[in-house]
Specification:
Elements lengths: L38 H4 L4 H13 L3 H10 L16 E4 H4 L3 E2 L7 E2 L8 E5 L12 E6 L5 E6 L10 E5 L8 H8 L2 E3 L5 E3 L9 E6 L16 H18 L8 E7 L1 H13 L8 E9 L3 H5 L2 H5 L13 H24 L2 H21 L2 E2 L2 E5 L9 H10 L2 H7 L11 H9 L11 H5 L4 E6 L7 H10 L5 H6 L3 E5 L2 E9 L2 E6 L6 H4 L1 H12 L6
Parallel strand pairs: 7-10, 7-11, 11-12, 12-15, 15-18
Antiparallel strand pairs: 1-4, 2-3, 4-5, 5-6, 6-10, 8-9, 13-14, 16-17, 17-18
Helix pairs in contact: 2-11, 6-7, 10-11
């Protein structure tokens, strides 16, 4: 999609722009209360924050007018809802709200959560059809805010293998990118044909790929979601209805994985699920790939990555003068992010994201190199630097594919720039969601993995925040030694683990580890869901 036309000259899309989809180099916009209130009210800046917003106006001439224009541009996504008769399964949240569940064979209880506003409709896709990715079915979770997802059943033992949720980032980028370019059963080639993937993550697991937040990919809504916390409510409802409708999967281990802005999503989604004592979601672990989770710590590692101090043979990319400018900007950047951490106010969080992205990501983007893989130039700027992104969009916009999958929107796009801007101006970007991880570690294993050629959510930053995290196993985790990850007697990365916390560096891989290291990624994924690294 390229840069946003409004702020392109100055702002860089930061780490979270999603996995392939993360490949999107765009700018963010929209303001928290603007999603719910009148624009004029939103732009009444508190006195204590006025100085920061005045700085933005100097940094980006006409910023306030442009922000207001972005908010005003929000429109419902064109769609045509199909009648329930066209679906194989229809489940209404209101009908199961008071139902009893019996997961452990001892205690019967009601499912927690408000599900009245949510419905699920599902259909099965013929494996021989052009829309199939082999052993796949499509689940369309149509709620007050409809969300679409595709489930690729395990090639091995669907009745017993784990169930995995995969999330691309953005925010606002479709997980169909992960499905058709990274880890799904098939990829899409230049001729829009499906190519079998020998290293699909559904080799030993059933994998759900979901378009979320609403208005991402095939999903649509008359309203909007502009924060990770709000999105977590939809995800909890979706999974609750999914496992109710497909109880054969509800007893199997369930894992959440994803990339990029999923570094925000996953800690919040997992915390939301675990907050419900009476649930039908058997969450066993989470895994975050090249994620944005602790911005204050991670932004400090952009300069080393761009300037050849990352301990690899990839750099340097930037000139010394640019590296010095990044050094000069870092203290201000981290001070602004700390202000966001302390207040979690939109008025502090928005300026921190814009200033830091401009100062620490902008120089690299302007170099012409691919922010998702520093080993190469951005070959296709209009398509997230990867031609595969265009092929996937063309494939998913074919009428026969849309009909087979039950799509109700008029067209598919890999990333929704308006949604992306809404999250930024809602202050979501710089928030400290890493603070949720210590409590998660008390309950489930957590994996942080990163391809070491990625810039935008680089491995240095992910290792740094993992080691900076304050939890009861910090000392042992930090002193743990990195050991080789090997497949076929060849090292493809390194791993260190202690208690329920694991970190991996994956060699010769960019932002999309399964795309660059298919065999290695399947190896560590199978070992992870098999329980090799846990307390």
């Amino acid at each position: 999609m390229g840069f946003s036309k409004t702020l392109a000259a100055v702002l860089a899309s930061s780490a979270a722009i999603s996995s392939v989809a993360a490949q999107e180099q765009q700018v963010l916009g929209g303001i928290e209360d603007a999603i719910h209130n009148v624009v004029d009210d939103v732009l009444q800046i508190p006195t204590e924050a006025k100085g920061l917003w005045d700085e933005l106006s100097l940094l980006v001439p006409g910023f306030m007018d442009k922000a207001q224009d972005m908010i005003a541009q929000q429109k419902p996504k064109p769609h045509k809802r199909k009648p329930d008769s066209e679906w194989d399964h229809v489940v209404k949240g209101a009908d199961i709200q008071s139902m009893w569940v019996d997961r452990d064979g001892v205690n019967q209880r009601k499912i927690d959560g408000s599900l009245e506003a949510y419905n699920l409709r599902a259909k099965k896709v013929d494996p021989s059809s052009s829309a199939s990715t082999r052993s796949s079915s499509t689940v369309d979770t149509l709620m007050t805010r409809p969300t679409t997802s595709t489930c690729s059943t395990s090639r091995n033992d669907p009745k017993n293998d784990p169930v995995v949720l995969w999330l691309n980032g953005g925010p606002g980028c479709s997980s169909m990118m992960g499905l058709f370019m990274e880890l799904g059963p098939s990829s899409v080639d230049s001729k829009l044909k499906l190519v079998y993937n020998d290293y699909s993550w559904n080799s030993n697991a059933s994998v759900i790929f979901i378009d979320q937040p609403v208005n991402t990919g095939y999903s649509y809504s008359g309203g909007s979601v502009s924060s990770t916390v709000a999105a977590s409510k939809d995800i909890y409802a979706l999974l609750t209805l999914f496992f109710h409708n497909f109880p054969e999967y509800a007893e199997q281990p369930f894992h959440i994985t994803g990339e990029s802005y999923a570094g925000h999503y996953i800690p919040v989604f997992a915390s939301e699920i675990l907050s419900h004592k009476n649930r039908n979601i058997n969450l066993k672990s989470i895994a975050i790939g090249n994620g944005l989770t602790d911005p204050k710590t991670q932004y400090a590692e952009y300069r080393p990555m761009a300037c050849g101090d990352d301990g690899s043979h990839y750099g340097p990319i930037l000139e010394e003068s640019e590296c010095q400018s990044m050094d000069n900007a870092l203290p201000r950047c981290q001070s602004l992010i700390q202000g966001c951490y302390d207040s979690q106010s939109v008025w502090n969080c928005v300026p921190s994201a814009i200033y830091c992205n401009n100062a620490l990501i902008g120089p690299f983007q302007r170099s012409g190199y691919n922010v998702y893989d520093i080993r190469e130039k951005c070959k296709d700027p209009e398509n997230l630097c990867y031609s595969q992104s265009a092929w996937i969009a063309q494939y998913l916009n074919q009428p026969e594919v849309m009909k087979a999958l039950g799509a109700e929107v008029t067209g598919y796009e890999s990333c929704n720039s308006e949604l992306n801007r809404n999250f930024l101006f809602n202050g979501d970007w710089s928030k400290p969601f890493h603070l949720l991880v210590p409590d998660l570690l008390k309950q489930i294993p957590v994996l942080i993995y990163a391809g070491d050629a990625d810039y935008i959510c680089n491995w240095l930053g992910n290792k740094a925040w993992s080691e900076a995290l304050v939890w009861n196993g910090k000392k042992d985790f930090n002193s743990a030694k990195m050991t080789d990850l090997t497949v076929d007697d060849k090292a493809y990365g390194q791993v260190k683990t202690s208690g329920n916390f694991t970190f991996m560096r994956i060699y010769e891989a960019g932002h999309m580890v399964p795309f660059n290291q298919p065999k290695g990624s399947l190896d560590f994924f199978n070992r992870w869901i098999g329980g090799e690294w846990k307390a």
